[in-house]
Write a structure and sequence with these properties.
The chain is α+β, with helices and mostly antiparallel strands. It has one domain: Alpha-Beta Plaits, CATH 3.30.70. Helices cover 27% and strands 31% of the residues. The protein has four helices and six strands. The protein has a four-stranded antiparallel beta sheet. Strands 3-4 form a two-stranded antiparallel ribbon. The termini are close together.
């Protein structure tokens, strides 16, 4: 079974209009969805990212440069992520179809995870796919 990175991409301004009580309701929706996925053993890990802070790392001429960002004031940020298992992109999309993030008009980005050995679906990353290894659809 392949593993997928699920990125919850959002416009932070959208959530600013919610009262604390409304945000509590939204959080309960997300938690309920996550518990449903954990019960099916599809979700391996999931976390909300903090609203403020973050660092952006780049390298120029062999020197590391660390700056503030990405900024929550940006039009679009990754607000959280999951690692989940599915047989294909199609199956992963079907599992995500009922996610409350979509019901709130936000976007979900889905990427297959490739292992160091080239097989998709494990831990690690990078590497080339082994000959004959199936690519998630």
């Amino acid at each position: 079974m392949a593993k997928f990175l699920v990125m919850l991409t959002e416009d932070p301004a959208y959530w600013a209009k919610y009262t604390p009580e409304q945000m509590g309701d939204v959080i309960r929706q997300y938690v309920a969805w996550g518990m449903k996925m954990q019960a099916t053993r599809r979700m391996k890990v999931g976390h909300k990212l903090v609203d403020e802070g973050g660092k952006r790392l780049t390298a120029a001429r062999g020197r590391l440069k660390v700056t503030d960002g990405p900024y929550a004031e940006s039009h679009e940020v990754v607000g959280g992520f999951y690692v989940m298992e599915a047989d294909s992109y199609d199956q992963a999309a079907k599992l995500l179809a009922g996610h409350p993030h979509l019901a709130h008009g936000q976007r979900i980005d889905l990427r297959a995870i490739e292992t160091v050995g080239g097989r998709r679906g494990g831990g690690g990353g990078g590497g080339k796919r082994k000959a004959g290894a199936k690519k998630p659809r």
